[in-house]
Specification:
With 142 residues, this protein is mainly α. It contains eight helices and no strands. The chain has a single domain, classed as Ribonuclease III domain (Ribonuclease iii, N-terminal Endonuclease Domain, Chain A, Orthogonal Bundle), CATH 1.10.1520. The chain is 75% helix and 0% strand. Helix 1 crosses helix 6, helix 3 crosses helix 6 and helix 3 packs across helix 8.
């Protein structure tokens, strides 16, 4: 029987895989450090991740197995954090479930991960602007 990672380890791995995937898509074209940081920060916020997940769900883009992975992410128990208090439990849980999905795909199916990231608008060039505009409009609406 395979050893199971503690929930905190699973969460950490998912967050790191998600972060790495997002950072990767902002590497080209070359940006100033400030611009790069602003773009990445706008997308890794809970509100932006929630918006991205809603796009995948509304477009019925995820397989049944991927939807199961989303449920795993929602079930990860964490203590009350400042972010959770700021955005609310539902948004925080949905953002965590997207991170879990990205981490899962990063470790099990990189080709599918790339397709999901492209579906969300992550690729080189101007398509990243679409993500930023959606994230900014989401932030200003709150």
């Amino acid at each position: 029987m395979a050893a199971k990672c503690p929930k905190s380890s699973e969460t950490s791995i998912s967050v790191q895989c998600c972060s790495a995937s997002i950072h990767w898509h902002f590497l080209f074209p070359a940006l100033s450090i400030e611009e790069y940081n602003d773009r990445v920060t706008a997308v890794v916020r809970c509100e932006a991740q929630d918006t991205l997940l809603q796009k995948l769900l509304e477009d019925d883009y995820l397989s049944a197995q991927e939807r199961d992975v989303l449920r795993w992410g929602k079930n990860v128990g964490t203590s009350k954090t400042r972010t959770r208090r700021r955005v609310g439990t539902a948004v925080y849980n949905r953002a965590s479930s997207l991170e879990t999905l990205i981490g899962y795909l990063y470790l099990t199916n990189v080709n599918r991960l790339e397709k999901v990231m492209v579906k969300l608008g992550f690729s080189t060039g101007v398509s990243t602007q679409m993500i930023l505009e959606q994230a900014i409009s989401q932030l200003t609406a709150t």
